[in-house]
Write a structure and sequence with these properties.
Elements: H1 2-11, E1 15-26, E2 29-40, E3 44-48, H2 55-63, E4 69-77, E5 80-81, H3 87-92, E6 95-97, H4 110-121, H5 128-141, H6 159-173, E7 177-181, H7 189-203, E8 208-213, H8 218-221, E9 226-231, E10 234-239, H9 242-250, H10 253-263
Parallel strand pairs: 3-8, 3-9, 6-7, 7-8
Antiparallel strand pairs: 1-2, 1-4, 4-5, 9-10
The structure holds adenosine-5'-diphosphate and magnesium ion.
Amino acid sequence: MSATNGQMSAANGQPTLSIRGLHVAVGDVEILRGLDLDVPCGEVHALMGPNGSGKSTLANALMGHPDYEVTAGSVHFKGQAVLDLETDERARLGLFLAFQYPAEIPGVRVASFLRMALNARRSEEISVMAFRRLLLDKMKMLKMAPRFAERYLNEGFSGGEKKRNEILQLAVLQPDLAILDETDSGLDIDALRIVADGVNTLRASNLGVLVITHYQRLLNYIVPDRVHVLIDGRVVESGGKELVHRLEAEGYERYEDAVSRQEA
Ligand SMILES: Nc1ncnc2c1ncn2[C@@H]1O[C@H](COP(=O)(O)OP(=O)(O)O)[C@@H](O)[C@H]1O
Ligand SMILES: [Mg+2]
């Protein structure tokens, strides 16, 4: 059903994710201050901005993290208002946030975890055999060794293996839109390639992605359809992939000067 909805919204040119005037506070501090953003079905968008601009706050608010209070604005996903939904209901609607999953569950293997996660999204449980086939198929597509699925979840995972696990979750769960908050930590060149290759493989099957990063290098590998610049809790500019290179050359100062002039 979710695939049908996704196609419908693509045909109508409707954005899959539509955020309007979003204000989010942590405690007494307002961090997002009127953020607008659209991510249409099947496109890869990058959200870039300096440290502290509110990128992870947006990811946390979209996931429904209880510490991030939405004080104004709206978020629609495939036409449905999501701010009143629980985190798992958002996932069932086809929104994927890699970090909504626990860091480590002792004694649970990657394969079992993925089957549980998939069943949580379906109305009917997938059979063990059918899941096995699906998993092997996805691992082959992503060029992963089948042995990886037998590892205990996150136990002793390297940065690259954590990313591999994240990408495999994406491939198995087949959401309509994935929000990937890629902080610098743990993104060595190996991990960077795993994320990029995974996203590039999956985008061919109409996966929408919002890549959140202040890391231009990642966007040399994942070439975004559109780029948005977040400064001080607002999207101040949107453009094509060439914006990545301009930011690389010029940095964010230009925007920050404009923001402080505006507030002076
Ligand atoms: N849980 C939190 N508690 C207190 N302050 C927070 C919390 N989360 C974010 N902030 C503050 O919000 C601002 C934006 O943070 P964040 O969204 O992590 O930025 P970015 O991901 O763009 O680097 C920062 O000033 C940060 O200290
Ligand atoms: Mg962050």
